[in-house]
């Protein structure tokens, strides 16, 4: 119905508010205005990506180097701009997409004021207004029914209950529900933020940051480095000052600049800045790939959470089913006397069913019946009189010219009014309902019905049962099968009858060959620990309230589960926010999409396997490449400690570590991170990464420190001489590069594929770069010559031996430890 047209409503004796009363309410803040936030603000996104611990450490180090005038050694600081830019741009893109999804049509409504009907916008409704609700309207404010003309509401967005609700005079109606059929005059009882829907979503408006195991591990390292960096940086500066003759000499000669640069070389090496950058890049690329499949990732970190999900709570309506009703079939009753005299009883009964459903404003079930029968070629017949459906009667009727009257309504209502014993029919009805069907009955009487004083003829004969059901998504069964294979426990949580939900769960094989266990949520314990124990044996929950959905997620957290929650209604918002990963459908309520980390734009449940698989790829590959970065952290910390304790010049420059890190860590890691990987997530990410990084990092540190202590004596270098110190640092850079290639080779295993070519290409690139003048000059690289070749070769051989020995020692120790532990059966 077009709300902008001149409204024509039934006559009412109510006068409604005067314009003065309306103005007073508007002035008093009692108009129907709500400040809605559909997603994070731009300021929140920028703040979250700029003000991080990592950015703070890198920025401070960069400022220190720039203060010395050695800008070439400050190029590592550009990682801040890249890392921050990626995060901001990706999340702003997600915000724009979400905001477009959340735009609602600014509908107009009809109110009754001063005895006249007038059209006003949504925000023009005030408290105590007399508001007309018509088919197709979304209820804009809480109200109470004054007069009803067959009003029927869909409250599924609020309650999760998919059945439509008939309203009578005095019944409340809540904002957010939708008028399916009929109309009513209502009195507004709450407006704006005081409405039911607004109150329910207020709890969901507080932003909750996604917790990422990967970022937690990186932040743990950064926090540890923060406590280590500050004192170590001070000690490094002090030790480097001593190597150039003390503070007074350093300041008077300007040597303090080189001391600061050397200290920063140690600090920057300890921080896995490339790992932070690569994590953001990997998350962003995964988000872009998912976007091509109509899956919007609102927070980059949620991509990683996908890999850890082991419990998936599904809202039935809008997820497993598409929220619509479909006509299934007509079941003729076989009892004596139920066949039509013409011998064509099913066709006659089906035609009567069409005419019964063909009201002026049919409800959702009536529309489904009409759509189904039109597809079979049925059209409207000639009806002599009609009794429309009434929520009080629970039945409707039509009368034909031949004198026959047909009734349609709830089976239990019709059978209770008819003569005879109908216990077997009720049992049949209950069995069909238990199979997930909505069941109606049609009956035929030979008497004429009076539309003015309608009454059910007790002699009417039950003719047929009409079966309708929610439309199950065609992809639901296959998607649930994939989750079962991946070890993800799925549960269906709904506001509907648990028997009906259980039947639908069985149809989509929620639990495979095993019959799903269904339970009424009204029987759930309130204690969270007891609820957690109960949920272990339950697959389907019906009659679930919004607060219970949230409690269910909390109970699953008690047992350490990583929970994902899907939904589309306002009633799902609290649970989606509480879950580790909230997934909203594209047609969801704006508040629900605002709190979700992932939005399935086209509302297709079948995208979820892609979402989880992409998360697993990110997590498995990031664990592989994180080992590369932490090796650098370990050897930088140990080298810095050795420099402080032995008071030697720092073995290399910040630009050396930038060059080596790019070729042996950064660029190879980026390629490795994008490789296919479907390994399921295993707890203990940080522990495994550290176990790999310690022997490699220790080996590099020992090799570099030994070279710094021994080579000056072997080669006759005086480290107080700038040229000799440059040669020593260039040699150490070669040692770090070669060992870095060995670490890369270990991480990239197996090498009998493109991975081996990857290692060879970057090793060759590093060597070639030393012979390119611009590259060699910018990064202070030197090709060894004369005696330096022999010394460097010996140092490399010894370094490789130390590298191999460290890994052998760790492998043997790990074997002894694991051999001593009892085997645990899973």
From TrEMBL:
Protein location: Cell membrane
Keyword Mitochondrion: no
InterPro entries per the UniProt record, alphabetical: ATPase_P-typ_cyto_dom_N, ATPase_P-typ_P_site, ATPase_P-typ_TM_dom_sf, ATPase_P-typ_transduc_dom_A_sf, ATPase_P-type_domA, HAD-like_sf, HAD_sf, P_typ_ATPase
Keyword terms: Membrane, Translocase, Transmembrane, Transmembrane helix
Topological type in the membrane: Multi-pass membrane protein
Gene Ontology cellular component annotations, sorted alphabetically: plasma membrane
Domain P-type ATPase A: 110-201
Protein name: E1-E2 ATPase
Organism of origin: Bifidobacterium ramosum
Lineage, broadest ranks: Bacteria, Bacillati, Actinomycetota, Actinomycetes, Bifidobacteriales
């Amino acid at each position: 119905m077009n709300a902008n047209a001149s409204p024509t409503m039934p006559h009412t004796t109510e006068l409604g508010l005067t314009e003065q009363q309306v103005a007073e309410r508007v002035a008093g803040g009692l108009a129907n205005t709500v400040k809605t936030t559909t997603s994070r603000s731009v300021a929140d996104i920028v703040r979250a990506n700029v003000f991080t611990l990592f950015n703070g450490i890198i920025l401070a180090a960069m400022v220190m180097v720039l203060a010395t005038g050695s800008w070439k050694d400050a190029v590592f600081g550009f990682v801040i701009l890249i890392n921050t830019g990626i995060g901001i741009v990706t999340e702003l893109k997600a915000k724009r997409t979400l905001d477009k999804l959340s735009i609602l049509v600014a509908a107009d409504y009809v109110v009754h004021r001063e005895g006249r009907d007038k059209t006003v916008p949504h925000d023009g409704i005030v408290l105590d207004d007399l508001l007309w609700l018509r088919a197709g309207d979304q209820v804009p404010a809480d109200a109470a029914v004054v007069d009803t003309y067959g009003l029927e509401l869909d409250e599924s967005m609020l309650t999760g209950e998919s059945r439509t609700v008939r309203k009578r005079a005095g019944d409340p109606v809540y904002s957010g529900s939708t008028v399916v059929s009929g109309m009513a005059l209502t009195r507004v009882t709450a407006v704006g933020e005081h409405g039911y829907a607004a109150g329910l979503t207020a709890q969901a408006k507080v932003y909750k940051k996604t917790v990422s195991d990967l970022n937690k591990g990186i932040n743990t390292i950064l926090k540890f480095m923060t406590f280590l960096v500050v004192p170590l940086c001070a000690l490094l500066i002090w030790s480097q000052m001593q190597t150039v003759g003390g503070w007074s000499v350093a300041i008077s000669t300007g040597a303090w600049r080189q001391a600061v640069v050397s200290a920063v070389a140690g600090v920057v090496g300890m921080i896995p800045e490339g790992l932070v950058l690569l994590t953001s890049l990997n998350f962003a690329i995964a988000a872009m790939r998912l976007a091509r499949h109509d899956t919007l990732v609102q927070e980059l970190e949620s991509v990683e959470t996908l890999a850890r999900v082991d419990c998936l709570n599904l809202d039935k309506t809008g997820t497993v089913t598409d929220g619509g009703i479909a006509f299934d079939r007509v079941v003729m009753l076989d009892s004596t006397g139920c066949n039509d005299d013409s011998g064509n009883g099913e066709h006659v009964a089906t035609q009567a069913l069409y005419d019964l459903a063909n009201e002026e404003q049919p409800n959702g079930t009536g529309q489904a019946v009409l759509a189904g029968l039109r597809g079979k070629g049925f059209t409207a017949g000639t009806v002599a009189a009609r009794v429309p459906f009434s929520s009080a009667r629970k039945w409707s009727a039509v009368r034909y010219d031949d004198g026959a009257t047909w009734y349609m309504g709830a089976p239990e209502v019709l059978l209770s009014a008819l003569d005879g014993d109908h216990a077997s029919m009720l049992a049949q009805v209950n069995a069909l309902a238990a199979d997930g069907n909505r069941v109606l009955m049609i009956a035929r009487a030979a008497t004429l019905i009076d539309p003015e004083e309608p009454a059910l003829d007790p002699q009417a004969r039950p003719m047929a049962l009409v079966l309708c059901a929610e439309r199950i998504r065609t992809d639901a069964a296959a998607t649930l099968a994939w989750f079962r294979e991946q070890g993800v426990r799925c549960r269906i949580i709904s506001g509907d009858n648990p028997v009906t939900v259980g039947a639908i769960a069985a149809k989509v094989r929620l639990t495979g060959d095993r019959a799903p266990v269904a339970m009424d949520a009204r029987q759930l314990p309130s204690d969270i620990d007891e609820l957690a124990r109960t949920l272990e044996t339950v697959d389907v929950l019906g009659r679930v309230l919004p607060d219970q959905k949230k409690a269910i997620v909390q109970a699953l957290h008690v047992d350490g589960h990583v929970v994902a929650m899907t939904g589309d209604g306002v009633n799902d918002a609290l649970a989606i926010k509480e879950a580790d990963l909230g997934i909203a459908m594209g047609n969801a309520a704006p508040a629900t999409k605002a709190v979700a980390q992932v939005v399935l734009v086209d509302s297709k449940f079948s995208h979820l396997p892609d979402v989880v698989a992409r998360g697993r790829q990110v997590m498995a590959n990031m664990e592989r490449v994180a080992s590369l970065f932490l090796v650098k952290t370990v050897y930088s910390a140990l080298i810095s400690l050795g420099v402080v304790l032995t008071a030697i010049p720092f073995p290399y420059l910040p630009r050396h570590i930038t060059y080596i890190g790019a070729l042996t860590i950064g660029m190879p890691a980026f390629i490795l991170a994008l490789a296919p990987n479907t390994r399921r997530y295993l707890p203990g990410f940080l522990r495994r990464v550290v176990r790999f990084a310690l022997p490699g990092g220790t080996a590099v540190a020992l090799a570099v420190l030994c070279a710094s202590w021994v080579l000056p004596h072997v080669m006759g270098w005086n480290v107080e001489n700038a040229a000799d110190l440059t040669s020593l640092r260039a040699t150490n850079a070669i040692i770090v590069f070669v060992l870095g290639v060995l670490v890369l080779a270990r991480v990239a295993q197996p090498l009998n594929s493109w991975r081996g070519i990857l290692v060879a290409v970057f090793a060759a690139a590093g060597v070639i770069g030393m012979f390119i003048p611009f590259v060699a000059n910018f990064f202070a690289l030197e090709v060894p010559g004369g005696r330096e070749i022999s010394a460097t070769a010996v140092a490399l051989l010894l370094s490789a031996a130390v590298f191999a020995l460290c890994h052998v020692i760790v492998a043997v120790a790990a074997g002894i430890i694991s051999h001593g532990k009892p085997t645990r059966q899973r």
